[in-house]
Amino acid sequence: MVYLDNAATTKPCEEALSAVMTAAEMYGNPSSLHKMGIDAEKLVIDARKAVAAALVCPPECITFTSGATEANNTVLFGIAKTYGRRLNKIVVSAAEHSSIIESAKQLERNGFEVVFVPPGRDGVIDEQAFVDAVDSNTFLASCMLVNNETGAIMPVKKIFTHIKRLFPDCMTHCDAVQGFLKLPIKAADFAADLITVSAHKVHGLKGVGALYVRKGIRLTPLLYGGGQEKGVRPGTESVPLIYAFGAAVRKLHPEMKTAYSNAEELNRRLRTKLSELSFVTINSNADNFSPYILNFSVPGIRSETLLHFLESRDIYVSSGSACSKGAKSPVLSAMGLSDKLIDSAIRISFSSMSSNGDVERLATAIQEGYMTLAKVR
Ligand code: PMP
Q: Atom 5 (ligand 1): residue with closest C-alpha?
């Protein structure tokens, strides 16, 4: 099997699987005052430390959520509730994941002014264009670190530093899901007040994520209840998922640099192979892009058709973004790609577990796919 859909989700690592079992057996409620509760709480504390170490921030700044979707919703609605009374505007990149875009559209329906800043033709958000959209009426600016469809790396640090210099009251949020444990992220030098990450993109399990909240930021919660996670995310903590998240982070964090070099090498190889195939157009630039994601098109063969051909060869890839399920990609459209290129776009995404053999098998199968499918067209 060749699994190249790691931007959609990753295979849980052994460490995460074993942690999930350990924590499921230690089934005390972390809020209980007795020993079983305290033992469960220790597991949550352990995971919080691991995620905080990876983001280089104090553990108290980490709030566990049910995933990045919840973290992103908490940011948009929570910041709007706290800070959106005097000020009325938010600025988000148009390349964001649907959990940001749809939340922003909902805020728009609720009467807020929302500006969506499109990426340039290269897929990257332009620093000046983003900053120009922010003004003294803006209470939140949100820009992702790595785009999930193309791998474009956005100049988040520059954008946020620039915004903070001009408008210190504007909150800054980064959805760092596709950059976490791939690119170095230090919460403090990012000039970000809030950062979203998700466990299942880093070999943890689905259903858990984390939100970094800088000290002093007041976030109105989406839910009300028992006051867990400092009241930002009440509800009994999913100790097994949280502990497994911590275990995955502890495993991957020290290997980040090696894994990055491996992804760079795989990306280079795949680019070379694809550039030898005259019928392939590569949509992800080589510069300013994460080596973990490569988007390309085989014009004339619909994404789904090639995807299923590859699946028949036991190779798993994605057509654009897995979350958009066939909808035309607004990110590729904003990059000025023709409908033909968009309709035939394929996204492959590596993880620390990907190998040269995966690239070889993919390249061979794409060639076979083209020969077979182009004939039946
Ligand atoms: N943001 C980005 C950039 C993503 O790629 C994803 C997952 N596709 C999410 C948010 C949502 O993450 P989760 O599945 O943890 O809700």
A: 148
